[in-house]
Amino acid sequence: MATDRRAEATWRGSLMEGEGTIERVGSGAFGPLGVSWPARAESSGGKTSPEELIAAAHATCFAMALSNGLAQAGHAPEQLDVSATVTFQPGTGITRSALTVSGQVSGMEEAAFREAAEGAKENCPVSQALRGNVELSLDARLTS
Amino acid sequence: MPRVQRRVDVAWEGNLARGSGELSAQTGAFHGLPFSLASRVAQAEGKTSPEELLAAAHAGCWTMSLAGELTGAGTPPERLTVAATTTLDEVEGAGHRIVASDIHARARVPGIDRAEFERAVEAADAGCPFSALIRASATVSVDAELEEAGV
């Protein structure tokens, strides 16, 4: 069954001097969040940006895919700490998403954990949407 | 221009079906947002999801791209309103995939005519980095309307 998720943004004025807002999302989980071109392309000043939201989408998607892969291998994780760092090159586009994960998974070998993490990186829906255009990397390790 | 990096951290506990996670942005723009599988594929119940975050990214990226095109054409917008809807679906043989991201835009732009506006919309979609990358695997549709002056 298809699932739709919706977000609304507004903008006032020119690109360089104007300002925008991620007004609301369907779930109500966040918003309004301010955005601007200087905050996107230079220092954030505490503002979000499309690249930060892509990093958030990738990190959450990868964490869910990996928890599923680990559970299917008989090792549901106690905890996964995931980060995604997305690189934006103004004028070129969104070039890279670097994932890191450290996992607490009882009774699992490091090699099997890395293999599961690699599978999640390849197959999670956000990775599938980014691949081809965005270089994906992964650094996976077990902490216990 | 120098490259820009944005980082988000996620902590997840437990298996997919019953576990849950929280995400926080390094910029501080959002912190401790909850997410789970149930709220991703069924009722959101106040929780965000990868697809909602992509919709927010697309809406934000697309507004900036259109603002840039309109500014470059000498007609900066008074106000743009953009909704993005991202669809996750099960694709036979491929599992869950993001299959579509649809843009609906309304614009109030003093001094522009319809043809110029349509050119700017086309260029905005072609130049939006998010539209470009998601088009590799999903469909992107754009529906843009120019509000009449004084409305």
Describe this structure in words.
The complex is a heterodimer of chains A (144) and B (151). By secondary structure, chain A is of the alpha+beta class. Chain A has 2 domains: 7-41, no CATH class; 50-142, K homology (KH) domain (GMP Synthetase, Chain A, domain 3, 2-Layer Sandwich), CATH 3.30.300.20. In chain A, 33% of the residues lie in helices and 35% in strands. Chain A has helices at residues 37-41, 50-72, 110-123, 125-130; strands at 3-12, 19-25, 33-35, 79-89, 93-104, 135-142. In chain A, the strands form 2 sheets. In chain A, strands 1-2-3 form a 3-stranded antiparallel sheet. Chain A has a 3-stranded mixed sheet with strand order 4-5-6, covered by helices on one side. In chain A, helix 2 (50-72) crosses helix 3 (110-123). The mean pLDDT of chain A is 96. Chain B is α+β, with helices and mostly antiparallel strands and 151 residues long. Chain B folds into 2 domains: 8-41, no CATH class; 50-146, K homology (KH) domain (GMP Synthetase, Chain A, domain 3). In chain B, the strands form 2 sheets. Chain B has a 3-stranded antiparallel sheet. A 3-stranded mixed sheet of chain B has the order 4-5-6, covered by helices on one side. In chain B, helix 2 crosses helix 3. The longest helix of chain B has 23 residues, at 50-72. Chain B is elongated.
Total helical segments of chain A: 4
- What is the terminal separation of chain B in angstroms? 39 Å
Computed over alpha carbons, the radius of gyration of chain B is 18 Å
Whole-number tally of structural domains of chain A: 2
CATH topology of the largest domain in chain A: GMP Synthetase, Chain A, domain 3
Query: Please, what is the oligomeric state?
Result: heterodimer
Beta content of chain A comes to 35-45%
Query: How would you describe the shape of chain A?
Result: elongated
Broad structural category of chain A: alpha+beta
Q: What Rg of chain A do the Cα atoms give?
A: 17 Å
Shape of chain B: elongated
Strand numbers in spatial order across the main sheet of chain A: 1-2-3
Q: How many helices of chain B? A: 4
Contiguous low-pLDDT stretches of chain A (5 residues minimum) are none
| Count of discrete structural domains of chain B | 2
Question: Which two chains touch over the largest interface?
Answer: A-B, 85 and 87 residues
The CATH homologous superfamily of the largest domain in chain A is named K homology (KH) domain
SSE run of chain A? EEEHHEEHHE
Helix and strand content put the structural class of chain B at alpha+beta
Largest sheet of chain B: 3 strands, antiparallel
